[in-house]
Amino acid sequence: MVPPVATVVLLATWGRKPHGMVLVLVAVALVAAVVAAVHHAEVVAHRVGEPFGTLILAVAVTVIEVGLILMLMTTPGRPADALARDTVYSAFMIVCNGVLGLCLLVGALRHHEIEFRVEGATGALATLTSLATLSLVLPAFTTSSPGNSYSGPQLAFAGVASLILYAVFVFVQTIRHRADFVHDHDLHGVRPRGMVALASLGLLVICLVDVVGLAKTESPAIERGVENLGAPQSVVGVAIALLVLLPETTAAVRAAAANRVQTSFNLALGSALASIGLTIPSIAVAAHLLDVRLTLGLPAKDLVLLALTVVVSVMTVAQGRATLLQGTVHLAIFGAFVFLAFSP
């Protein structure tokens, strides 16, 4: 019932400025639509099997993320040049530290020591590191454009390179080396019937439209909340990333608790890859059409945290197994990220 109810709320509030309980209703409908979107994506994913299923989840989350960014970028009177950077960077840190750390912690607490395929994890991490460097690191050091931004040709190159890297990763994950991303414990029950999967696909599309529209209505309240807290505007990007990744985080933690850690890694790293590999090119095209300047390069503090995350992640996946210690380290870095986001 969530998709039609969310649609009704969207139609009733579109183009208006709700306050009080109506605003709370919009927020509830927004969160419910995000959860429902990922639920229906999971149904479709269960139908097509691993690792195609996690790919569908990642793309669904990315569509939500891009929609939220575009809606906030087109909000009048708001500086939106760094919103894409803040959101993508937040998604990277949340996934590689918060989600992975929580999955490792839960899995290790329940199963003492957890295992996953080194080949799939290292391949995903190498692609993710390259995408993050192209999109978030290099713009801070190039000289063709003022500030932490790319020139037009540089942005076009980064966008095309990101799409190619992501496409090759998907090809390797789903066709050429599919076995590297499927663990022996990643067993599924009875697959949903074809009609059930088709119904979920239609409801998934409705949910994605609802999420983007409701986020447009809710965005002024999010920005007011950030201002009232006295936090930097970059916290808006953190809020967007937390919103779109919350349901997927739940799915990843459930998989880790069931000792299907490879599925958790596919979900987490796949969403981060899609977040950068698809979001940056999409936002680059939108910025060109809207004539909006994009600030992509990270400040020094965030560059240090990103580099620390990459180094620790490499050490985590290098042996194909992990314990309680690795999960705690990742969560400590995530805590530092959240704290410094509010107190830079």
From TrEMBL:
* Stored InterPro entries: Alkaline_pH_Ca-Antiporter (IPR052946), NaCa_Exmemb (IPR004837)
Could you tell me which residue ranges the Sodium/calcium exchanger membrane region domain spans? 22-174, 200-342
Its membrane topology: Multi-pass membrane protein
Domain of life, per UniProt, equals: Bacteria
User: Mind listing the UniProt keywords for this protein, alphabetically?
Assistant: Membrane, Transmembrane, Transmembrane helix
The answer, when asked if Ubl conjugation is one of the entry's keywords, is no
Give the main location: membrane
- What is the name of the protein in this document? Ionic transporter y4hA
What broad taxonomic lineage does this protein's source fall under? Bacteria, Bacillati, Actinomycetota, Actinomycetes, Micromonosporales
